[in-house]
Specification:
338 residues; alpha+beta; Molybdopterin biosynthesis moea protein, domain 2; Aldehyde Oxidoreductase, domain 3; Molybdenum Cofactor Biosythetic Enzyme, Chain A; 3 domains; six-stranded mixed beta sheet; four-stranded antiparallel beta sheet; 19 strands; magnesium; metal ion binding; Molybdopterin molybdenumtransferase; molybdopterin molybdotransferase activity; molybdenum cofactor biosynthesis
Length: 338
């Protein structure tokens, strides 16, 4: 830090706030610490009685917080993102589309454990809408070693963040249950699924009822696949009761079973499989009556064709207990932690 004449301060970085007081109008910072002094600022500063200023000494080995924020932003920035103007050394990113937000957690950890810098994001593997805030980044000090910023650029695999557009546009629903098939009770499951899919612009182009008979259900699934749907959802018949045949029916299609069961409540009896690149999903009864379940957690990933592994499903256990909050904030809650 050094004292220099105001007239000689163009391009220098202020070490302190400078307050402006206008009687009966305002009192506050006219220039904030870290401000880079421009030619047009000189007259204003002199009118504020500042003939000398305390500024950071110029050092070619250091860079200003604004420039450092740009470097951090470039580590994150990706398609379908918009960056804000720099404000007090910070840049924020927002989404330009509806889609699935992804975070490379290992690379994010590298940045945040490197020291003197930070990137904060919203939870990964969650749906975002156009205009949603994604992340903010800045360095902690006002200036930082240029070499340190070069090191983090070399160390991190970019981009750290990604938004995946939804690709699945059509779905088939097979509603299982002899009581529904024979008309003894009304099908209240299918309308719930249709509404959830509608939120993402997915059209149900195939729907059929099936008895609690695994051969019939397998046939219905294959029929939906032949019609070219992007996603198959089987509702009901997912428990361990002897007459619940849906898991066997899905297996008999030749689909690769990723997991039967998930550490999420509601939704433990969830089944995920793929036949080729088409997900075939078994939905437990809780999806019909619970506001949020395992289905809400995995649906955005399925629609973005983001392949889900059994390990990723196993990781859902931490935060996988829905607390049935009086006001639901999903996906901004622990249930969305993936």
């Amino acid at each position: 830090m050094k004292e220099i004449k105001t007239e000689d301060a163009i391009g220098s970085v202020l070490c302190h706030d400078i307050t402006e007081i206008v009687k009966d109008q305002r009192k506050g910072s006219r220039f904030k610490k870290g401000h880079i002094i421009k030619e047009e600022d000189i007259e204003v500063l002199l009118n504020l009685g500042k003939e000398h200023l305390y500024v950071f000494e110029k050092d070619e080995t250091m860079i200003h917080e604004n420039d450092a924020a740009e470097i951090l932003c470039n580590l994150c920035f990706n398609e379908y993102m918009k960056k804000s103007a720099i404000s007090e050394g910070k840049i924020e990113l927002t989404s330009t589309i509806d889609g699935l937000f992804k975070v490379n957690r290992e690379e994010l950890f590298k940045v945040n454990s490197f020291g003197k810098m930070m990137i904060a994001t919203r939870q990964g593997n969650v749906p975002v809408k156009k205009g949603d805030k994604l992340a903010g980044m800045r360095i902690i000090p006002l200036v930082i070693e240029k070499e340190k910023m070069q090191q983090i650029q070399e160390k991190v695999q970019k981009p750290i963040l990604k938004i995946m557009p939804y690709q699945i546009k059509t779905a088939g629903i097979i509603t299982t249950g002899s009581e529904v098939y024979k008309g003894r009770i009304k099908d209240t499951f299918t309308p719930v699924i249709v509404e959830k899919l509608k939120e993402y612009g997915v059209e149900v182009t195939y729907h059929s009822l099936s008895l609690d008979d695994h051969e019939m259900t397998t046939s219905k699934i294959n029929e939906a696949l032949k019609q070219g749907v992007d996603l198959v959802l089987c509702t009901g018949g997912m428990s361990v009761d002897p007459d619940d045949k849906t898991p066997l029916a899905i297996k008999n299609t030749g689909a690769k079973i990723i997991s039967y069961g998930a550490p999420v409540l509601p939704g433990a009896m969830f089944l995920l499989s793929y036949k080729g690149d088409v997900p075939i999903v078994g939905l437990p009864g809780c999806v019909m009556y619970s506001r949020r379940t395992i289905f809400d957690v995995v649906l955005p990933r399925l629609l973005a064709k983001d392949l889900i592994t059994s390990d990723e499903l196993a990781l859902l256990g931490e935060g996988g207990l829905c607390l049935n909050c009086p006001v639901c904030t999903f996906p901004n809650c622990g249930l969305s932690k993936g």
